[in-house]
Design a protein that fits this description.
The protein has 176 residues and is mostly beta strands. It has three helices and twelve strands. The two termini are 29 Å apart. The relative contact order is 0.17.
């Protein structure tokens, strides 16, 4: 499915600190593919207590478990320090197009999930990245169900209807 082009702002990370003297920002990214999302030339918005300001990404470098983010106009540590704690948002129209069967996590969160037999399981609340495959966290009331995001379990996704249909794997049939 191709993403719809519109200007909805999406939270993509947070500025957690500064690095060095030349304005490098420490970024905790809340996305699966930070290098694609924070590509050179991409326009991002940083929201702090005082303001919301657009910036253009110069480069992104892995740094431990986080990243160093360099932005146009941020060239000193003093200026960079003013952005610490800021949330990063990106306009939906700035995100790269995805392949036919790929989805951004924020598009999946909030989908209604039901089984192939029609039983309502709940709402997809969050996604856990495990390395081999993602795990969908589905909640209905106080009940939480974890389902692997694999082809044999996720039967269909209908973004227009806001629905995901799943086949419950062996061992989890009691939720059915």
């Amino acid at each position: 499915m191709k993403k719809a082009k519109h200007d909805k702002l999406l939270k993509m990370g947070k500025i957690t600190g500064v690095h060095g003297l030349k304005g490098a920002l420490k970024l905790a990214a809340h996305v699966q593919s930070p290098k694609e999302i924070f590509a050179m030339g991409r326009v991002i918005n940083i929201i702090t207590r005082l303001e919301s300001q657009p910036y253009i990404v110069q480069k992104l470098i892995p740094h431990g478990t986080d990243f160093l983010l360099f932005l146009d106009g941020i060239t000193t540590r003093t200026v960079a320090e003013k952005l610490v704690g800021g949330q990063i948002e990106i306009s939906r129209s700035e995100l790269p197009d995805l392949e036919e069967s790929a989805y951004y996590w924020h598009d999946l969160i909030g989908l209604h999930v039901s089984t192939d037999t029609g039983k309502d399981i709940g709402i997809l609340q969050s996604i856990i990245e495990t390395g081999s495959n993602d795990v969908y966290v589905i909640q209905k009331g106080k009940k939480e169900v974890l389902l692997p995001a694999i082809e044999s379990v996720i039967l269909s996704i209908d973004m227009v209807a806001g629905q995901m249909r799943v086949k419950i794997p062996k061992g989890l049939e009691e939720i059915n």
